[in-house]
Design a protein that fits this description.
- This protein is an alpha/beta fold.
- 53% of the residues lie in helices and 9% in strands.
- The strands form three sheets. The protein has a five-stranded parallel beta sheet. It has a two-stranded antiparallel sheet with strand order 4-5.
- α1 packs antiparallel against α3 and α10 crosses α12.
- The protein is elongated.
Length: 362
C-alpha cells in the first residue's frame, strides 16, 4: 500500500505544474537523486515524462544523440515504478557480438553448442520481475529482434538450444541514437518491433539546445576534477563563456566533460580565455567532419572496452562460429584502434592549428 501511495504522489507532483515543469518538486528531486545537472525546459520535460510513465507498465523508447545522457532515464523509470525492488539490468546491445547476443539475452541450455558445459540464465530470466534497459537497440540482429518482439507480445521466449517455452515478467526500456524510421525503411529494423518498443517515447535534448546548462555542466566538471586531483580550479572569461555557449558540441555532454577535464589539467589555476578554449576545440570550419569522427570515437571506444572485458570467452561460441567470430573480433579491434587514433589525431591537430603560438607563425 505504501508503494502505491508513493507512486500516486509522484504522479500528482508531476501533474502539478505551478511554476512550470522546471520548478516541479518531483523533477527537481529526480535530478538531484540521479545527478542530472541542468534547468533547460526540454530536459525537465523529459524527466517529468519519465516520472509520469514510471508507474504504468508500458515499454519506453528513449531517443537522443550519443553522449546526451539517455542512460539516466531508464533508472528514473525503474526507481519510480512498482518494480524498483527487483533487478535492473542494463545491456549495451551494440557491444555484444552477433554470435552471442541471443545467449546473453535469453540464456542457453547445456550442450546447446560447443563449450556450453552448463545451462546459463539470460538477462531476461535474471531480471524477471524487474526492468531491462536495452541500449543501442537498433544494433540488434534481425533474428534477435524477432525473439524480442515475442517477449514484448507474449512474455515468452526460448533459451538457445531449448524447445521449452519460458515466461518472464519484465519491463523493457530501450534507447537509441539512430533514426529508427530510416532504419525501418532501409530494412535494418522491424516496424512491428518499433511500435512495440515505442509505446511511450522520451526525447533527450542535445547539449547545444540546453542553453545555460552548458555553463553549469562546465563548472561542475571543472570543480569535480580540481577536487578529485587536488589541483587549482579554473574559471572562464566572458569571451570563453560565449564560445562555450555557441559551440555546437557534437559529442554532447561527454565531449564537454572531455574538453573541460583537459583544460583543468593543462591550464590548472588559470582564467581561461577564448583563445585558450579554442585551442582545445576542433576547427569549426570542419565541424561536420569533426562530428563524424567524434561520434565514431566515443561509440567505438565503448565497443572496444566491452570487447576487451566481455565475460564470456570465445570457447563459449558454437564451433561453426568460432573462427568467424574470432576473425570478426580481430578485425573490429583493428578498426576500433584506427578510428580512435584518427579521432585523437584530428583533435590534436586542431588544437595545434588553433593554438595562439601556432597562429602567430602562419
Amino acid at each position: 500500500m505504501t508503494t502505491k501511495i508513493s507512486h500516486t504522489t509522484s504522479i500528482l507532483a508531476v501533474n502539478d505544474m505551478h511554476g512550470g515543469v522546471t520548478d516541479n518538486p518531483a523533477v527537481k528531486s529526480a535530478k538531484l537523486r540521479f545527478g542530472i545537472i541542468g534547468n533547460a525546459p526540454a530536459l525537465a520535460e523529459a524527466v517529468a515524462r519519465a516520472i509520469r510513465v514510471a508507474p504504468i507498465d508500458l515499454s519506453v523508447l528513449v531517443t537522443g544523440e550519443s553522449g546526451s545522457g539517455k542512460e539516466f532515464f531508464p533508472k528514473i523509470i525503474h526507481q519510480n515504478s512498482p518494480r524498483k525492488h527487483a533487478k535492473y539490468i542494463a545491456v549495451n546491445c551494440g557491444a555484444i557480438p552477433e554470435g552471442t547476443i541471443d545467449s546473453e539475452l535469453f540464456g542457453h541450455e547445456k550442450g546447446a553448442f560447443t563449450g556450453a558445459v552448463a545451462s546459463r540464465k539470460g538477462y531476461f530470466e535474471e531480471a524477471d520481475g524487474g526492468t531491462i534497459f536495452l541500449d543501442e537497440v537498433a544494433e540488434l540482429p534481425m533474428t534477435t529482434q524477432a525473439r524480442l518482439l515475442r517477449v514484448l507480445e507474449t512474455g515468452e521466449y526460448l533459451k538457445v538450444g531449448s524447445s521449452v517455452v519460458q515466461s518472464t515478467n519484465i519491463r523493457i526500456v530501450a534507447a537509441t541514437n539512430v533514426d529508427l524510421q530510416k532504419a525501418i525503411a532501409d530494412g535494418r529494423f522491424r516496424e512491428d518491433l518499433y511500435y512495440r518498443l515505442s509505446t511511450v517515447q522520451i526525447c533527450v535534448p542535445p547539449l547545444r539546445r540546453r542553453g545555460d546548462d552548458i555553463m553549469l555542466l562546465a563548472g561542475k566538471f571543472a570543480a569535480d576534477f580540481a577536487e578529485k586531483y587536488r589541483m587549482p580550479g579554473i574559471s572562464f572569461d566572458d569571451n570563453a563563456r560565449r564560445l562555450l555557449l555557441t559551440y555546437p558540441w557534437p559529442g554532447n555532454v561527454r565531449q564537454l566533460k572531455n574538453v573541460i577535464e583537459q583544460i583543468a589539467l593543462f591550464d590548472a589555476g588559470a582564467t581561461i580565455t577564448r583563445e585558450v578554449l579554442q585551442s582545445y576545440l576542433p576547427d569549426r570550419s570542419n565541424a561536420s567532419d569533426w562530428q563524424t569522427l567524434w561520434m565514431l570515437r566515443i561509440t567505438l571506444q565503448s565497443h572496444l572496452q566491452s570487447a576487451c572485458t566481455h565475460r564470456y570467452p570465445y570457447h563459449h561460441h558454437p564451433r561453426q562460429r568460432y573462427r568467424q567470430c574470432g576473425r570478426r573480433r580481430e578485425a573490429d579491434r583493428h578498426a576500433l584502434v584506427t578510428f580512435v587514433a584518427l579521432g585523437s589525431a584530428y583533435a590534436t591537430d586542431a588544437r595545434r592549428r588553433n593554438h595562439p603560438t601556432v597562429k602567430q607563425h602562419r
